[in-house]
């Protein structure tokens, strides 16, 4: 298949360039000024971006238009539940999947909510298919951890934690337990002794071995600092999700290389942790040299509104191309799928979105979406 005469978003050229695109067998084969071929789409005057990527979502887990019956977001029985896996709760028939395609979103990292100190693993999936096992890109992409107000709710039922100190202490204990578990497991393997596996600790090994980062739910500035403090103590990977008050401590964040996943910055400030949220955060952090992604935190906001949030960040001063990077190549890099997705380049998956006008224009509409070369919308 060939798409001709479109304005194609090419990051190596820092903008939209008039090009043709050829894709075959799910991969981009060529991007050039002119490509000959019999079967083509005439996209004269249209704009093409990579499929959009949201690095923090709950799509398929907290389903739309169902209510509590479709809400598998949080496991309230235990504040520490690293054994949970998003793949076991994602419903591909959630109507939000089709709505997301209407907004150009082709890939998300989705998982459990923020009621638990340690909530389980997120999964990176493509938004095409009926069987979740066939939609998986990375089954265990990150370990969700939460700081601040939300996990403190366990204290109301007489369980730990009740304070921010308790949240941090429980996370440290879980990391210590994982380190001890690793040592015992290695000793048993070395000495050919029986060893009983623990599902919680097996998942935590992915964190302490550096295979996956902790995905830290953090709004308030001091909670952001606590997440960084613990990540440094245990030498583990970290993403700062929401990072609502990151702009208040930008000089501190500049000292580290932790990616930020900003948002949602839209909507009312419904709790004290979000009183300082603003669409200017993305620009301030980008100006400081930090890697910035933008999220809808679906279902807090609809998955299809991702492009709108990027546009609003651009309206508040974020460079337009950087705003588009924040929902394409940047989350692809954070999710470690950049060798497959996130930009329009030879050899990468043919995840393409055709827009009728510049995608950051409020009036822009998605005309077609391809995922791995197959038309999905």
Automatic annotation (TrEMBL):
<protein>
    <submittedName>
        <fullName>Imidazolonepropionase</fullName>
    </submittedName>
</protein>
<dbReference type="InterPro" id="IPR006680">
    <property type="entry name" value="Amidohydro-rel"/>
</dbReference>
<keyword id="KW-0175">Coiled coil</keyword>
<dbReference type="InterPro" id="IPR051781">
    <property type="entry name" value="Metallo-dep_Hydrolase"/>
</dbReference>
<feature type="domain" description="Amidohydrolase-related">
    <location>
        <begin position="47"/>
        <end position="374"/>
    </location>
</feature>
<dbReference type="InterPro" id="IPR011059">
    <property type="entry name" value="Metal-dep_hydrolase_composite"/>
</dbReference>
<feature type="coiled-coil region">
    <location>
        <begin position="171"/>
        <end position="198"/>
    </location>
</feature>
<dbReference type="GO" id="GO:0016810">
    <property type="term" value="F:hydrolase activity, acting on carbon-nitrogen (but not peptide) bonds"/>
</dbReference>
<dbReference type="Pfam" id="PF01979">
    <property type="entry name" value="Amidohydro_1"/>
</dbReference>
<dbReference type="InterPro" id="IPR032466">
    <property type="entry name" value="Metal_Hydrolase"/>
</dbReference>
């Amino acid at each position: 298949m060939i798409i001709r005469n479109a304005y194609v978003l090419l990051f190596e050229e820092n903008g939209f360039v008039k090009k043709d695109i050829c894709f075959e067998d799910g991969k981009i084969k060529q991007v050039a000024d002119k490509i000959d071929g019999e079967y083509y789409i005439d996209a004269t005057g249209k704009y093409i971006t990579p499929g959009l990527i949201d690095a923090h979502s709950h799509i398929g887990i907290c389903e739309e238009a169902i209510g509590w019956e479709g809400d598998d977001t949080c496991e309230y029985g235990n504040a520490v539940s690293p054994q949970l896996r998003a793949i076991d709760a994602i419903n591909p028939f959630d109507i939000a999947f089709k709505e997301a395609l209407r907004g150009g979103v082709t890939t998300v990292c989705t998982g459990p909510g923020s009621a638990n100190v340690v909530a389980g693993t997120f999964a990176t999936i493509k938004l095409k298919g009926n069987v979740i096992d066939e939609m998986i890109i990375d089954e265990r992409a990150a370990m969700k951890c939460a700081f601040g107000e939300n996990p403190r709710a366990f204290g109301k039922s007489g369980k730990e934690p009740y304070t921010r100190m308790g949240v941090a202490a429980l996370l440290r204990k879980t990391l210590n337990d994982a380190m001890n578990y690793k040592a015992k497991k290695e000793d048993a393997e070395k000495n050919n002794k029986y060893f009983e596996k623990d599902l919680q600790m097996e998942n935590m090994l992915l964190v302490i071995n550096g295979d996956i980062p902790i995905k830290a739910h953090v709004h308030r500035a001091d909670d952001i600092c606590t997440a960084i403090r613990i990540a440094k103590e245990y030498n583990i990977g970290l993403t700062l999700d929401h990072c609502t008050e990151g702009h208040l401590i930008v000089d501190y964040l500049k000292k580290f290389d932790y990616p930020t996943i900003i948002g949602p910055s839209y909507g009312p400030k419904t709790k004290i942790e979000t009183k300082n949220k603003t669409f200017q955060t993305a620009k301030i952090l980008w100006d400081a040299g930090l890697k910035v992604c933008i999220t809808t935190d679906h279902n807090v906001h609809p998955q299809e509104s991702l492009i709108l949030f990027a546009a609003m960040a651009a309206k508040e001063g974020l460079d337009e191309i950087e705003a588009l990077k924040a929902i394409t190549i940047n989350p692809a890099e954070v999710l470690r799928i950049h060798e497959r997705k996130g930009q329009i380049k030879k050899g990468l998956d043919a995840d393409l979105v055709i827009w009728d006008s510049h995608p950051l224009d409020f009036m822009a509409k998605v005309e077609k979406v391809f995922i791995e070369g197959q038309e999905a919308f």
